[in-house]
Amino acid sequence: MLATLVAYSVIAGARAITGLRSLWLGTTPRSKQRIYFANHTSHGDFVLLWASLPAALRKRTRPVAGADYWTKGTLRRFVIGEVFKGVLIDRQHSASDHNPLEPMLKALEAGDSLILFPEGTRNLDDEVKLLPFKSGIFHLAKACPQVELVPVWIDNLKRVMPKGRVLPLPLLCTVSFGAPLVAKEDESKEAFLARAVEALLELAPEEEA
Amino acid sequence: MDRHTLLLFAGIGSLLLLASIVGFVLKWRTGVGPNPVIDNLNARIKAWWLMVAVIGFAFLLGQTAVILLFYGVSFYALREFITLVPTRSSDYPALVAAFYFVLPMQYLLIAIDWYGMFSIFVPVYVFLLLPILASLGGDSARFLERTSKVQWGLMLAVFCISFVPALLTLDIPGFEGRHLLLIAYLVVVVQLSDVLQYVCGKLFGKRKIAPNLSPSKTVEGFVGGIALASLAGASLWWITPFNPWQAGLVALLINLLGFFGGLVMSAIKRDRGVKDWGHMIEGHGGMLDRLDSVCFAAPIFFHVVRYWWVP
User: Fold this and answer.
1) DSSP string covering B148-211
2) Which of A41, A171, A208 to mutate to test the interface with B (most CBs of B within 10 A)?
3) A146-183 pLDDT, tens digit each
4) Which residue of A66, B54, B79, B138 has the fewest C-beta atoms within 10 A of its own C-beta?
């Protein structure tokens, strides 16, 4: 109850502040199992992507988030656990023997869609559009070939909420969904990641920082 | 509302009704398939109904509502401007000041009728404050460019647009209690000029007037639109403190300013590689696409009226 209320206020707030516009350029919002992979510049990224989805899809779409950040404090734990039903992953690899992809694979097996930021961390550099991708997305694509990989470019949110600032700026944001990507049979990790990066950059508007 | 205001809105309503009928007939004659020009025309007309309704509602509620309405208009315009011109993370303090301090302050100064301050607040105080805030971040990359982006955004979207409701502060002898009509005059004439330039351009347009800046503007549209809108302005003298020929001259002046405003704003859009400022008004683009001409006309209109009609 409380979680639903918080979810709706978060979505309404995000829409009001950013005048959110969702462009389905390469695909349509369908109830197919997907991994939405997006650029990462702000903690609000997954909120904006999540708010772009129709309510029915939103219920089955879970953001992948770093456990190190989101398990600090009751509020964060409540937000990621109850409101967004996030999939928490261990970015520090503290236990060296276990597979860090495990929680994501479990969620995919259960039929959920994921929101993933393959850069692994927020890109805070004004000059660089995209950091190199971590390889997790490649292994997920190999393990679950039936899942569509949808590139999503989130534009302008970095300017709305720069790192370490509290007050958001009411600038307009756009979330663009590109055409789904499929991992080819014998494609190498490097080739696949390069293709994924390219698909994402194609959605980015061309401009200097 | 007084008789003149009702008459004016009735006139605008009839014009829109006529436009809607023309749009409907055009659509009917071209058949079911999509026709980009006519569909856009009908979207524009529909948006006009809504815009007139919003302004009419604000007029009904009175002066405070009109000031608040333009506060909102300025907010959306500033948001579109800053969204389109890239800034860096070190511009955050300047942008916070723009949205959360300068914008409300400018409209507050107008609401309390402090002419000496609202007429210089942005061009003097804010002009100096912004580079100070930008320098505090310690980032010198593209400093002048970044600072001027925020300054331009505030000058156009906040300062210039705020001169529309600022007309409420003018004390014109014999014109007491009719200030809203002066706002209506400015907005109607300038917007009519935009519409007539568009119509004349579509009907008779041949020679492009500024192909590099705005490919849709033609000499025929410019001459026909400005001439007709200035005549319309002259014929609206009864809602102004002007006599008919003064009304015509003032209309000509604000129409020319409006035209050049559109040209300047097109140049900025071109440079940024976009066609429209935004998407909030269907068929028209963004708030700034609808208001580019008003931006340039409003402050000059205000000062012309203040210089010659306020003792």
Assistant:
1) HHHHHHIIIIIIIHHHHHHGGG---TT-TT-HHHHHHHHHHHHHHHHHHHHHHHHHH--SBS-T
2) A171
3) 999 999 999 999 999 888 888 999 999 999 999 999 87
4) B138
